[in-house]
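User: I'm putting together a small comparison set for a docking exercise, and I want a reference complex before I start. The sequence is below, and the ligand is iron/sulfur cluster. Could you produce the 3D structure with the ligand included, as structure tokens?
Assistant: Of course. I'll restate your input first, then give the structure tokens for the complex.
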Amino acid sequence: MSKPKIATCWLDGCSGCHMSFLDMDEFLVEFAQKVDVVWGPTVDPKEYPKDVDVCIIEGAVSSDEDLHKLEMIRSRTKILVSLGDCAVTGNVPGMRNALKVPQLFERAYVENAAVNKRAPNWGVPKHLPTARPLHEHVKIDAWIPGCPPPAKAIHFAVTELLAGRIPDSTEYTRFGK
Amino acid sequence: MAATPVSTEVVTLKLNDRDVSATRGQTILEVAREQGMEIPTLCFLEGLTPWGACRLCMIELKGSPKLLPACTTKAAEGMEIVLDSDRLKKYRKMILELLFAERNHVCAVCVSNGRCELQDLAQKNGVTHVRFPYRYAKYEVDSTHDLFRLDHNRCIMCTRCVRVCHEIEGAHVWDLKGRGIETEVVADNNLPWGQSESCTRCGKCIHACPVGALVEKTTAVNEMKKRSGFLPYLTTMRENRP
Ligand code: SF4
Ligand code: SF4
Ligand code: FES
């Protein structure tokens, strides 16, 4: 039997959730033997494969690029997991949502800048009007809240997924944990 | 003087199939907690007049099509009550999710993170995410008081501050303005809190507030420790005053 294909993805987050993933320490060895990590910031491949079993996603959906990536991943993956408060609630990236994007740029790149007072206008993805949780854009199958979720919560969720169950991680984590 | 017949003082009822007795006038919540049976509450705070606003403590009464709030419903003879049906669990989860969707509770950057009643209840009631779209509306933070801060982003409209300031401190600084989703707590006649002449700076509202809306100014993320245990004590003192 071939090993389950797992991907991880980093949208608008601080990578703290991926760090927490790496905090699973010795379990990572076992994990690496049981699954194929086929895509994500910790591995090389550039192209997202067509038939991924589980993708664990960190970060809110903040730009058009985030949204395209998320939709592409949804169409090629059986189970999507929202990892961490940014993916689950919008969290810190969502704190800009009461501002309009031009106001936001003014504040970030002009008011609070010491030099080069202007917003970047090329080479960066276009901001969506609001940064939102993943499940407000596509169907999500499981949630692991926390900022970042403790390694124990991720370990539990991954173990459940490998056993073919959808994890309920409320025993191990909560919003803001 | 004729003795009052015992039957008017004690009532018997059923909570989740358990036969219990209660003193007339006790609420379902009081009886349940005496029995060690849990009902989630948010606007209720022992020592303050029950308000019945959050609806988290709803229970089922046999024969009644309506759900009733346990914190304001009085125990009566022969009641048959269910505390935790699937229907109640479903509504409780929904109420908690709506509270999160309504304002901006960014738990990760809150001084009450880890000591918040809303956060705890979400975890206990199985809220892994919020199924309603977040509003992301703009709310003010009032930092004009020299000791305390009011962050409207995190207020859940429980009115515990309103009641503690009026009923226990006797200052009546807090009131509500607006209606429905526009409702907000206001100090005095809608003044910045720092300009309030009625505030005695006692800090009771800080400790009565279940979330990170009313906090001490010097606290950073995760640092605000609330102590509401003084309330039943003060209430009992007041009631037993000669
Ligand atoms: S500090 Fe005391 S007097 Fe001032 S608003 Fe709070 S409860 Fe009222
Ligand atoms: S400020 Fe706190 S105590 Fe007052 S209504 Fe809001 S949540 Fe309740
Ligand atoms: S605790 Fe009963 S309605 Fe809020």
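Chain B has two domains: 11-84, 107-236. Chain B has a mean pLDDT of 93.
User: Thanks, that's exactly what I needed.
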